[in-house]
Write a structure and sequence with these properties.
With 138 residues, the protein is of the alpha+beta class. It is 41% helix and 28% strand.
Amino acid sequence: MIEHEGIIDHIDGDVAHVRIESVSACASCHAKGVCSAADQEEKFLDVPLHGANYRQGDPVYVQVSKRLGFKAVALGYVYPFLLLMIVLVGLLAAGAGELQAGSFALLSIVPYYLMLYLFRNRISSTFTFSIKKTFTVQ
């Protein structure tokens, strides 16, 4: 399982809206105050509660299976890269100029990401998150 710490922002019915802080490796560096590469951003996930008892402000771990994590990486990065490279190499092998081949290769991923956007609801239904409470000593 892949886990991220988060806090329940609010609850609507049987769905918890969990805020997680996405931190790059640079953001945890001791020199992040003087470096412009440090980035942090908040992300929100909707997680079904399945009748579990949670309250707003509860610290939780958001979990997803590693298999789904790899699927997300493949959909977002690996497949478009492969598409781009296939188009680029194919056009260069067909005798197209480098500028033309590169331009068409870059444009070839636009329909791919458009299809991802159009099917986002169907794709998001395959990604299921779960939460569990964190146990902190006070």
